[in-house]
């Protein structure tokens, strides 16, 4: 099974990883994992005055802060994964990647903030579900 896991380094990502570890009987090493991190884009006016290499280094550093502990977790669990970083709004990037990659399952750590609708899932999860047909497992 091809599994896409969206990660952001938050406590909700840690809960998602704990869930994976606790349920290795059906989410084990036999699956193909892709871990996706969406780094928020630097505003265009700021990006215009920053050197391209500096901006790339910033995005790489932000992604590495998220991926480093996850790589350690995956090694301890005996799992391999592909690590992907994309720049832009998380919900759009996750939904698009899930659709285009033809994943069998999307896993999201979720939390609720803001409006009544988002108290159940969180705004990113709500937007992803609205724009994606991939079966999704939300971990709270």
Mean pLDDT value: 88
Largest sheet: 5 strands, parallel
Number of helices: 6
Q: How many discrete structural domains? A: 1
Q: Could you state the order of secondary-structure elements as H and E? A: EHEHHEHEHHE
% residues in beta strands: 15-25%
User: Which descriptor suits the 3D outline?
Assistant: globular
SS-based structural class? alpha/beta
Q: What's the total count of β strands?
A: 5
Structure explained in plain terms:
The chain is α/β, with parallel strands linked by helices. It has one domain (2-139): HUPs (Rossmann fold, 3-Layer(aba) Sandwich). Helix content is 49%, strand content 21%. The protein has six helices and five strands. It has helices at residues 11-22, 44-48, 52-77, 90-100, 116-121, 123-130, and strands at 2-6, 32-39, 81-87, 105-109, 136-139. The protein has a five-stranded parallel β-sheet, with helices on both faces. β1 (2-6), α1 (11-22) and β2 (32-39) form a beta-alpha-beta unit. α4 runs parallel beside α6. It is globular and about 50 Å long. Residues 112-121 have low confidence and may be disordered.
What is the structure about, briefly put?
This protein is an alpha/beta fold and 140 residues long. Helices cover 49% and strands 21% of the residues.
């Amino acid at each position: 099974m091809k599994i896409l896991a969206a990660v952001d380094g938050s406590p909700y990502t840690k809960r998602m990883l704990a869930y994976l570890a606790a349920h290795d009987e059906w989410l084990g090493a036999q699956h193909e994992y892709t871990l996706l991190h969406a780094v928020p884009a630097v505003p265009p006016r700021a990006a215009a005055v920053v050197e391209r290499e500096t901006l790339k280094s910033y995005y790489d550093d932000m992604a590495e802060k998220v991926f480093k502990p996850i790589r350690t977790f995956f090694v301890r669990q005996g799992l391999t994964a592909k690590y992907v970083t994309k720049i832009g709004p998380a919900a759009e990037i996750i939904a698009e990647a899930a659709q285009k990659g033809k994943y069998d399952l999307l896993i999201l750590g979720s939390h609720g903030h803001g409006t009544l609708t988002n108290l159940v899932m969180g705004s990113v999860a709500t937007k992803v579900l609205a724009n994606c047909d991939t079966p999704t497992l939300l971990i709270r």
